[in-house]
Amino acid sequence: MADAERDKTGRTSLGKRLIRWIGVLVLCVAALLAGIVAALGPERAMALLNGTPPAEAVPAPAQETAAAESGDGHGGTPAGPTEKIVVTPFKEIIVNISATTATRRETSRFLKLNLALVYDEAVQGADQVEPRKLFLRDSFQEYLRQLNEVDLQGSVGLVNLKSELLRRARAISDSEAPQEILIADLIVQ
Fold this sequence. Notes:
Elements: H1 2-5, H2 14-40, H3 42-50, H4 61-69, E1 85-89, E2 93-100, E3 106-120, H5 133-145, H6 154-173, E4 178-188
Antiparallel strand pairs: 1-3, 2-3, 3-4
Helix pairs in contact: 2-3, 5-6
């Protein structure tokens, strides 16, 4: 069968090579279109092909009306749980962290950190945040001293640092009141 595809010189015919290239081209275009649909979503991809602007996600007026009518009867928004957000700053934290030099020698660096804890007073157990602030600071310092300079590099390092500090804040306060860690200064020297 392979002999039937080849001509007398041992090469495949031009027509068969052209068909193969067209098949590969069609597959590439299909993969490109699938990637565009996956990246943009079906609505935006169709809007791109049609040349029309995509429909923006706007809340339906019927939903807003239903929510307003289910309130206190005055046409306002329904009464729900109110958030009382409190931001409590901490004193500056300075700890030693380990680092590795270019010659692979272990050395010590200073980490200077200014942060604040954001918590919701409306959540049960929020009254334990302020009295346990010294314990929070101690737990933060204990964690920070275990870090390596590499652990703090890039945006991933910052996200991991915030999540670990938030996890410790929730554990020490024994509540879900702590919502976020805000970092004002982070200096490694």
